[in-house]
Design brief:
The protein is an alpha+beta fold. It contains 3 helices and 5 strands. The C terminus is likely disordered.
């Protein structure tokens, strides 16, 4: 009989211990995030997926040399002199045709080192982080495209303001007054309209 009462007490006691923890957490602020309906606000300098704006790439290969894991593949050749000149968004002339620009995000270590040496800022980290896949080939992104529309005029020439006209020199102030202030200028009456 004593063992039976002891077993009942242990059962009730363990339930009370569990309920104490439950009741303690019932009235605290919830930390559960209902993803994907709710998402955390990421820091402004978060490093996520790379993107390259093909129309601004000059094919210099600085990003390829800066990448420590060699996840960027670039193939470019010199543009023929007979074709019209094209420009990046910052006005730098594009002298190379980029035929291949691939980024393998399965190899990327998200160090952001490739974005710093780019002279046209065409490669940058985006805030997109939801690109998980079970196939690694889905992480190979091809940015070179045949239908790209390049700038054919230098945007720096358009943005340059017109040179202002030289201002007429101000008349010299008379120096004959005792107080140092010039005498008031004589006022001329307004011209009468024609035929009055």
């Amino acid at each position: 009989m004593r063992q039976w009462l002891k077993d009942i007490w242990e059962g009730v006691f363990t339930v009370l211990v569990g309920m104490r923890i439950t009741w303690r957490h019932l009235f605290v602020k919830k930390v559960t995030l209902h993803y994907p309906e709710e998402k955390w606000q990421l820091p402004p300098r978060s490093r996520m997926r790379l993107f390259m704006k093909y129309e601004d790439c000059i094919g210099c290969g600085q990003c390829v040399r800066a990448c420590p894991v060699a996840c960027i593949y670039l193939k470019a050749e010199k543009r023929p002199s007979t074709v019209p000149a094209i420009y990046a968004a910052n006005g730098q002339p594009i002298k190379l045709d980029v035929h291949v620009f691939d980024i393998d995000m399965s190899l990327c270590c998200y160090c952001n080192l490739c974005t710093y040496p780019c002279p046209t800022d065409c490669i940058y980290m985006t805030p997109e982080y939801e690109f998980a896949s079970t196939d690694l080939t889905h992480h190979l992104y091809h940015f070179a495209k045949k239908d790209a529309k390049f700038l054919t005029e230098d945007p720096r020439k358009k943005a340059a303001p017109a040179a202002p006209a030289p201002a007429a020199p101000a008349p010299a102030a008379p120096t004959g007054s005792a107080g140092g202030t010039p005498p008031p200028a004589p006022q001329t009456p307004p011209a009468s309209p024609a035929g009055a």
